[in-house]
């Protein structure tokens, strides 16, 4: 009774956690506003911003409309979807879509439309 089986770091199904889910929250900075917040593992930049009370331009939230188009200044991301609505050239030039981009390190992006939520 009350016994805890397995490694306490394992999830509820007894499977060891792995990958980015075990990572610490990562810090995101938005330029030029200077807003800063943290993103939980697996959270998109847009979701983390909203949770912190910061509104970024967005519409579809699934990587197709490009309303959230921003530019990566530093850090790394991974996409939730295989084909976000960016060309190879745009990716190479540092553009990203925060609605489907999850931080893989502390990062800074340029998003001039960032605002505090009312
Ligand atoms: S909100 Fe549509 S691509 Fe990000």
Automatic annotation (TrEMBL):
Tell me if Metal-binding is a UniProt keyword of this record: yes
Question: GO: which molecular function terms?
Answer: 2 iron, 2 sulfur cluster binding; metal ion binding
Residues covered by region (Disordered)? 1-26
The record's listing under CDD domains reads:
fer2 (cd00207)
The UniProt record lists the 2Fe-2S ferredoxin-type domain at 26-115
Arranged from A to Z, the UniProt key words for this protein are:
2Fe-2S, Electron transport, Iron, Iron-sulfur, Metal-binding, Transport
Sequence ranges of Basic and acidic residues compositional bias: 1-14
**Matches recorded under Pfam families:** Fer2 (PF00111)
Cofactors = [2Fe-2S] cluster
The protein's matches in Gene3D superfamilies, at most eight in alphabetical order, are given as: 3.10.20.30
Q: Which PROSITE patterns match?
A: 2FE2S_FER_2
Please state which protein family the record places this protein in: Belongs to the 2Fe2S plant-type ferredoxin family.
The protein depicted here goes by the name 2Fe-2S iron-sulfur cluster binding domain-containing protein
């Amino acid at each position: 009774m009350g016994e805890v089986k397995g490694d306490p770091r394992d999830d509820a199904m007894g499977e060891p956690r792995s990958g980015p889910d075990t990572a610490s929250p990562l810090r995101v900075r938005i330029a030029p506003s200077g807003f800063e917040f943290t993103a939980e593992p697996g959270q998109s930049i847009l979701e983390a911003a909203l949770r912190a009370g910061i509104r970024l331009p967005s519409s579809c939230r699934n990587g197709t409309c490009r309303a959230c188009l921003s530019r990566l200044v530093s850090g790394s991301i991974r996409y939730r979807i295989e084909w976000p609505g960016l060309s190879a050239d745009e990716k190479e030039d540092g553009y990203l879509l925060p609605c489907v981009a999850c931080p893989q390190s502390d990062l800074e992006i340029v998003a001039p439309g960032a605002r505090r939520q009312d």
